[in-house]
Amino acid sequence: MKPAVSIYSFLILIAAILITAGCSELSEFDDNQVQAALNDSLLTTTESWDVDLTILKDGNRQVTIEGAYALNIQEKDREETRITGPVYVQLYDSTGTRETEAWSKRAVYHAAKNEFELYDSVRVHTTDQRRLSTEYLKWSAFGRYFVSAICNYCNTYR
After folding, report:
1. Rounded distance between C-alpha atoms, residue 95 and residue 59, angstroms
2. Using CA atoms, how far apart are residues 84 and 50, in angstroms rounded to an integer?
3. What is the pLDDT of residue 156?
């Protein structure tokens, strides 16, 4: 009688191994589907307070952005930092000398485009005494230009 118990135990063990081995591996297609779903849903956010963001180019400061709070969002196709303020921005020339200052209530920095947008009560002062007041302003580091989309509220003065 003892050998019959061993045979049943052996058969149960073999059946458990076969079931486990058959269910533990995904096909290559299933594995790719799971990875695609996980990659699409990956979202990383980071919060910071009393933010001081400095962007360098060739070892020189290009832009400094200060704000009270920042939320950095990183997804597959998007990386941006949303800064609430008051927000203070300083732009520097190629030698690292400050040439422009700007203030606003909030800003968004787009790292991939190397540009930032200022919103709500934007004021800009340059070292040559130019002034700009608007509700929206975009600055691009590639062309080093400003764009204001709401020009009916723009006021430039010296």
Report:
1. 10
2. 10
3. 47
